TrEMBL record:
<dbReference type="InterPro" id="IPR029209">
    <property type="entry name" value="DML1/Misato_tubulin"/>
</dbReference>
<comment type="similarity">
    <text>Belongs to the misato family.</text>
</comment>
<feature type="domain" description="DML1/Misato tubulin">
    <location>
        <begin position="132"/>
        <end position="225"/>
    </location>
</feature>
<protein>
    <recommendedName>
        <fullName>Protein misato</fullName>
    </recommendedName>
</protein>
<dbReference type="InterPro" id="IPR036525">
    <property type="entry name" value="Tubulin/FtsZ_GTPase_sf"/>
</dbReference>
<feature type="domain" description="Misato Segment II tubulin-like">
    <location>
        <begin position="4"/>
        <end position="115"/>
    </location>
</feature>
<dbReference type="Pfam" id="PF14881">
    <property type="entry name" value="Tubulin_3"/>
</dbReference>
<dbReference type="GO" id="GO:0005739">
    <property type="term" value="C:mitochondrion"/>
</dbReference>
<dbReference type="GO" id="GO:0007005">
    <property type="term" value="P:mitochondrion organization"/>
</dbReference>
<dbReference type="InterPro" id="IPR019605">
    <property type="entry name" value="Misato_II_tubulin-like"/>
</dbReference>
<dbReference type="InterPro" id="IPR049942">
    <property type="entry name" value="DML1/Misato"/>
</dbReference>
<dbReference type="Pfam" id="PF10644">
    <property type="entry name" value="Misat_Tub_SegII"/>
</dbReference>
<keyword id="KW-0496">Mitochondrion</keyword>
Amino acid sequence: MTSREILTLQLGHYANFVGAHWWNLQEQSFDYHGAQPSQVDHDVLYREGRTLKGQTTFTPRLLLVDLKGSLKSLPKEGELYEDLLPESGIEWDQEKFEVKQDKKPVKNKFQTEIESPIILPEAVNKKYNLEESVEVWSDYLYSRFHPRSINIINEYQHANKETPFDSYSLGVELSKTECFQEDFNDKIRNYVEECDHFQGFHMLTDCTNGFSGLSSSCLENIRDE
Protein backbone atom coordinates (compact mmCIF):
# COMPACT_ATOMS: atom_id res chain seq x y z
CA MET A 1 0.00 0.00 0.00
CA THR A 2 1.35 3.40 -1.00
CA SER A 3 1.15 6.03 1.72
CA ARG A 4 -0.19 9.46 0.85
CA GLU A 5 1.65 11.66 3.31
CA ILE A 6 0.19 14.58 5.25
CA LEU A 7 2.10 17.43 6.91
CA THR A 8 0.50 18.72 10.11
CA LEU A 9 0.79 22.39 11.07
CA GLN A 10 -0.04 23.55 14.60
CA LEU A 11 -0.03 27.29 15.30
CA GLY A 12 -0.86 28.55 18.78
CA HIS A 13 -0.91 27.36 22.37
CA TYR A 14 -4.49 26.10 22.30
CA ALA A 15 -3.86 24.38 18.97
CA ASN A 16 -0.89 22.63 20.55
CA PHE A 17 -3.07 21.50 23.47
CA VAL A 18 -5.37 19.82 20.95
CA GLY A 19 -2.39 18.55 18.97
CA ALA A 20 -0.83 16.95 22.05
CA HIS A 21 -4.01 14.92 22.56
CA TRP A 22 -4.04 14.05 18.85
CA TRP A 23 -0.49 12.68 18.81
CA ASN A 24 -0.97 10.83 22.08
CA LEU A 25 -4.00 9.08 20.59
CA GLN A 26 -2.08 8.18 17.43
CA GLU A 27 0.68 6.49 19.39
CA GLN A 28 -1.81 4.60 21.54
CA SER A 29 -2.80 2.75 18.37
CA PHE A 30 0.77 1.67 17.55
CA ASP A 31 1.32 -2.08 17.50
CA TYR A 32 4.96 -2.78 18.35
CA HIS A 33 4.62 -6.57 18.23
CA GLY A 34 2.71 -7.13 14.99
CA ALA A 35 0.11 -9.27 16.73
CA GLN A 36 -2.80 -7.23 15.38
CA PRO A 37 -2.25 -5.64 11.96
CA SER A 38 -3.37 -2.03 12.13
CA GLN A 39 -5.98 -0.67 9.75
CA VAL A 40 -4.34 2.74 10.13
CA ASP A 41 -1.40 3.64 7.90
CA HIS A 42 0.77 5.60 10.31
CA ASP A 43 3.20 6.55 7.54
CA VAL A 44 0.62 9.11 6.44
CA LEU A 45 1.22 11.27 9.53
CA TYR A 46 4.63 10.00 10.68
CA ARG A 47 8.08 9.82 9.17
CA GLU A 48 11.02 7.53 9.81
CA GLY A 49 14.36 9.09 10.65
CA ARG A 50 17.75 8.20 12.04
CA THR A 51 19.96 9.90 14.60
CA LEU A 52 23.70 10.41 14.15
CA LYS A 53 24.14 7.40 16.43
CA GLY A 54 22.19 5.23 14.01
CA GLN A 55 19.04 4.92 16.10
CA THR A 56 15.81 4.71 14.11
CA THR A 57 13.08 7.19 15.03
CA PHE A 58 9.43 7.45 14.03
CA THR A 59 8.15 10.96 14.66
CA PRO A 60 5.16 13.06 13.58
CA ARG A 61 5.50 14.88 10.27
CA LEU A 62 4.82 18.10 12.10
CA LEU A 63 5.63 21.80 12.34
CA LEU A 64 4.30 23.59 15.40
CA VAL A 65 4.60 27.22 16.49
CA ASP A 66 4.26 28.67 19.98
CA LEU A 67 5.51 31.58 22.07
CA LYS A 68 8.64 31.84 24.17
CA GLY A 69 8.17 30.22 27.57
CA SER A 70 5.41 27.88 26.43
CA LEU A 71 7.38 24.62 26.41
CA LYS A 72 8.20 24.42 30.12
CA SER A 73 10.46 21.32 30.49
CA LEU A 74 10.32 20.26 26.81
CA PRO A 75 13.53 21.19 24.94
CA LYS A 76 13.00 23.13 21.71
CA GLU A 77 15.10 20.52 19.87
CA GLY A 78 13.03 17.66 21.28
CA GLU A 79 14.45 14.77 23.27
CA LEU A 80 15.39 12.21 20.63
CA TYR A 81 18.29 13.91 18.86
CA GLU A 82 20.53 15.05 21.71
CA ASP A 83 23.57 14.26 19.56
CA LEU A 84 22.62 17.16 17.28
CA LEU A 85 22.99 19.79 19.99
CA PRO A 86 26.20 21.76 19.40
CA GLU A 87 28.72 22.17 22.16
CA SER A 88 30.11 25.63 22.69
CA GLY A 89 33.76 25.89 21.71
CA ILE A 90 34.21 29.29 23.36
CA GLU A 91 36.42 29.43 26.42
CA TRP A 92 35.36 32.22 28.78
CA ASP A 93 37.40 33.89 31.48
CA GLN A 94 35.54 32.76 34.58
CA GLU A 95 36.54 35.90 36.50
CA LYS A 96 35.20 38.40 33.96
CA PHE A 97 31.60 37.40 33.56
CA GLU A 98 28.59 36.47 35.63
CA VAL A 99 26.23 33.66 34.67
CA LYS A 100 22.51 34.09 35.27
CA GLN A 101 20.41 31.06 34.47
CA ASP A 102 16.65 30.65 34.59
CA LYS A 103 15.34 28.13 37.06
CA LYS A 104 14.94 24.77 35.35
CA PRO A 105 11.25 23.80 35.08
CA VAL A 106 10.21 20.85 37.21
CA LYS A 107 8.67 17.93 35.35
CA ASN A 108 5.45 16.46 36.67
CA LYS A 109 5.17 12.81 37.70
CA PHE A 110 3.86 11.70 34.30
CA GLN A 111 6.76 13.21 32.34
CA THR A 112 9.30 11.90 34.84
CA GLU A 113 8.02 8.33 34.70
CA ILE A 114 7.68 8.00 30.91
CA GLU A 115 11.38 8.85 30.64
CA SER A 116 12.29 5.78 32.68
CA PRO A 117 12.65 2.56 30.62
CA ILE A 118 11.77 0.60 33.76
CA ILE A 119 8.60 2.50 34.67
CA LEU A 120 7.43 3.27 31.10
CA PRO A 121 5.53 -0.01 30.48
CA GLU A 122 3.49 0.61 33.63
CA ALA A 123 3.11 4.34 32.99
CA VAL A 124 1.25 3.74 29.72
CA ASN A 125 -1.75 2.26 31.53
CA LYS A 126 -1.40 4.17 34.78
CA LYS A 127 -3.84 6.90 35.78
CA TYR A 128 -2.41 10.31 36.61
CA ASN A 129 -4.10 13.31 38.17
CA LEU A 130 -2.94 15.69 35.45
CA GLU A 131 -5.59 18.30 36.17
CA GLU A 132 -3.52 19.49 39.12
CA SER A 133 -0.13 19.45 37.38
CA VAL A 134 -0.76 20.50 33.76
CA GLU A 135 0.21 24.10 32.98
CA VAL A 136 1.17 23.78 29.30
CA TRP A 137 0.50 21.19 26.61
CA SER A 138 3.92 19.54 26.94
CA ASP A 139 3.05 18.50 30.51
CA TYR A 140 0.95 15.61 29.18
CA LEU A 141 2.66 15.03 25.83
CA TYR A 142 3.67 11.39 25.33
CA SER A 143 4.95 11.72 21.76
CA ARG A 144 8.49 12.81 20.96
CA PHE A 145 9.18 15.24 18.13
CA HIS A 146 11.87 15.79 15.50
CA PRO A 147 14.22 18.76 16.21
CA ARG A 148 12.80 20.84 13.36
CA SER A 149 9.18 20.36 14.47
CA ILE A 150 9.15 22.95 17.26
CA ASN A 151 9.35 26.63 16.27
CA ILE A 152 9.36 29.30 18.97
CA ILE A 153 8.41 32.97 18.55
CA ASN A 154 10.97 34.79 20.68
CA GLU A 155 9.43 38.23 20.12
CA TYR A 156 6.50 37.42 22.42
CA GLN A 157 6.33 35.72 25.82
CA HIS A 158 3.66 33.17 26.67
CA ALA A 159 1.00 34.52 29.08
CA ASN A 160 2.56 38.00 29.09
CA LYS A 161 -0.22 40.54 29.72
CA GLU A 162 1.98 43.58 29.09
CA THR A 163 2.85 42.73 25.47
CA PRO A 164 0.31 40.09 24.42
CA PHE A 165 0.27 38.41 21.03
CA ASP A 166 -3.43 39.05 20.78
CA SER A 167 -4.39 40.46 17.38
CA TYR A 168 -4.61 39.31 13.77
CA SER A 169 -2.36 42.15 12.58
CA LEU A 170 0.47 41.13 14.91
CA GLY A 171 0.50 37.69 13.34
CA VAL A 172 0.53 39.11 9.82
CA GLU A 173 3.46 41.39 10.68
CA LEU A 174 5.34 38.49 12.25
CA SER A 175 4.85 36.42 9.11
CA LYS A 176 6.81 39.04 7.15
CA THR A 177 9.96 38.60 9.26
CA GLU A 178 12.95 36.71 7.91
CA CYS A 179 12.35 33.87 10.37
CA PHE A 180 9.05 32.98 8.75
CA GLN A 181 9.73 34.12 5.21
CA GLU A 182 12.79 31.90 5.02
CA ASP A 183 13.26 29.43 7.87
CA PHE A 184 9.68 28.27 8.47
CA ASN A 185 8.76 28.11 4.79
CA ASP A 186 11.95 26.17 4.08
CA LYS A 187 10.95 23.61 6.70
CA ILE A 188 7.59 23.19 4.99
CA ARG A 189 9.34 22.62 1.65
CA ASN A 190 11.77 20.12 3.19
CA TYR A 191 8.99 18.06 4.71
CA VAL A 192 6.97 18.08 1.49
CA GLU A 193 9.91 17.29 -0.79
CA GLU A 194 10.90 14.21 1.20
CA CYS A 195 7.44 12.70 0.60
CA ASP A 196 6.77 10.30 -2.28
CA HIS A 197 3.01 10.86 -2.64
CA PHE A 198 2.20 14.03 -0.73
CA GLN A 199 -1.53 14.40 -0.07
CA GLY A 200 -1.94 17.74 1.69
CA PHE A 201 -1.88 19.65 4.96
CA HIS A 202 -3.60 19.18 8.29
CA MET A 203 -3.77 22.48 10.21
CA LEU A 204 -4.70 23.28 13.79
CA THR A 205 -4.63 26.96 14.70
CA ASP A 206 -5.76 29.48 17.29
CA CYS A 207 -8.28 31.90 15.82
CA THR A 208 -8.66 34.56 18.54
CA ASN A 209 -5.10 35.92 18.77
CA GLY A 210 -2.03 36.68 16.67
CA PHE A 211 -1.80 33.11 15.45
CA SER A 212 -4.89 33.71 13.33
CA GLY A 213 -2.96 36.23 11.24
CA LEU A 214 0.12 34.03 11.20
CA SER A 215 -1.79 30.97 10.02
CA SER A 216 -3.63 33.00 7.37
CA SER A 217 -0.33 34.23 5.95
CA CYS A 218 1.06 30.70 6.14
CA LEU A 219 -1.83 29.37 4.05
CA GLU A 220 -1.33 32.15 1.50
CA ASN A 221 2.34 31.20 1.16
CA ILE A 222 1.41 27.54 0.70
CA ARG A 223 -1.11 28.48 -1.98
CA ASP A 224 1.47 30.63 -3.79
CA GLU A 225 3.96 27.77 -3.74
